[in-house]
Amino acid sequence: TEHKKYKNLIEVIYSFSIGGSERLAATLAREFKGRGVNVSVCATHSAQGPISKELDKEGIPYRGFGFETRSRLGKWLFPIQLYLYFKQQRAEVIHVQHVFVLQRCYWPARLAGVKRLVLTEHSDYAFRTMPDYKQTSRKYGKRADKVTAIHKQLQQYLVDELDIPFAKTQIIYNSVDTEHFSPGIPQLNLRKQLGLEDGCVLLGWVGRMHAAKDLANLINAYERVSEKAHLCHALVLVGDGDDRALAENLVRTKGLSERVFFLGERQDVPDLMRNFSIYVSSSKTEGVPLVILEAMSTGLPCVATEVGGIAEVVKKGTGWLVPPKDPQALANSVIQLIENSVFRSQASIQARDYVTSNFQFESMVDAYEEALRIA
């Protein structure tokens, strides 16, 4: 059936910090703008951050509502301001990342005449751990016109547990711009900057530092790596979040400060990844992390915990899967990769090949374009 095509789209995200869903929205905004769509991005809970700087560079209009830092009056005025913003932008379709963001903007959007609401969900962790949130999500999830999930298990969960009609759901796998994330000589020499020797094996981690990422697991594993591995190695953590102080304390208490580096939020992630030797993911819950696809696209072998949709991505020959919450298993796989440079370079080639042949960036953008009916 022929649908009406919409021209004015708003990507609605939680914040302008670097997280998988924020990055997805910013990437889609850039691609849609290139395809002639009138697109803006709004963040409900923050005023600005690395993502808004990125949008600035791309010439994409954005607005941050900073809900979290508002006074009581400010919070009360929030839905009215959101309504006025949608109205003023003449928004016809909004693409919302996460149901808790949809909850905040559902009525302002409908009252402002938004014709189509598409929700993208990334993980079931919050639903599983917060029963109240699950209840509210049940109410709002099914109000969206379309709900996309980033992997199969998650789609099933949304249908079974949140009562979202199957016909409304669709799987759109995360995908990665393989030209943007590609192997090569980095512009920045990270080893030199950190005072490490040239051949030092760099383990990399990128993301938002919160409980689900289980950084304690990674640091505990790295402590074991330090005791066993013979070659020079270091761990580099990129990103920020609620658990950063905890992670930094743990590193200090374990006496690992000279080997573990916290770089904070960065805008040069593709270049940083070209400096890494191995990518490590220690999460206790995940969707299909965009960052793992980006690492593989850069030619990094991955050691990752087998949670969520990760096994749909990290295949035999491209890296290692280990059980979650098991620092010893994580350490063992990392040590094998550090010590075996031949396997490392084979896995590097296979990781890049696997992503370029299975996660076509253009087809992901096309799928969202169709779901949003802006095509």
List the helices and strands and how they pair.
Elements: E1 8-13, H1 20-34, E2 38-43, H2 50-58, E3 62-64, H3 72-88, E4 93-97, H4 99-111, E5 116-121, H5 125-129, H6 131-141, E6 146-149, H7 152-161, E7 169-171, H8 190-193, E8 201-206, H9 215-228, E9 233-238, H10 244-253, E10 260-264, H11 269-275, E11 278-281, H12 290-297, E12 302-305, E13 319-322, H13 327-339, H14 341-358, H15 361-372
Parallel strand pairs: 1-2, 1-4, 2-3, 4-5, 5-6, 6-7, 8-9, 8-11, 9-10, 11-12, 12-13
Helix pairs in contact: 1-2, 3-4, 4-6, 9-13
Q: What percentage of residues falls in helices of 4 or more residues?
A: 40-55%
Percentage of residues in strands: 15-25%
Q: What's the mean pLDDT score?
A: 95
Tell me the number of helical segments per DSSP (H or I, 4 or more residues long): 15
Strand line-up in the sheet with most strands: 3-2-1-4-5-6-7
User: Structural class of the helix and strand makeup?
Assistant: alpha/beta
Low-confidence stretches: none
What is the CATH top level name of the largest domain?
Alpha Beta
* Number of structural domains: 2
Mind summarizing the main beta sheet? 7 strands, parallel
CATH superfamily of the largest domain: Glycogen Phosphorylase B
Q: What value does the Rg take, in angstroms?
A: 21 Å
- What is the succession of H and E elements? EHEHEHEHEHHEHEHEHEHEHEHEEHHH
* C-alpha termini separation: 13 Å
**What name does the CATH topology of the largest domain carry?**
Rossmann fold
| Shape field | globular
Based on the structure given, which CATH architecture of the largest domain is correct?
3-Layer(aba) Sandwich
What is the total tally of β strands? Answer: 13
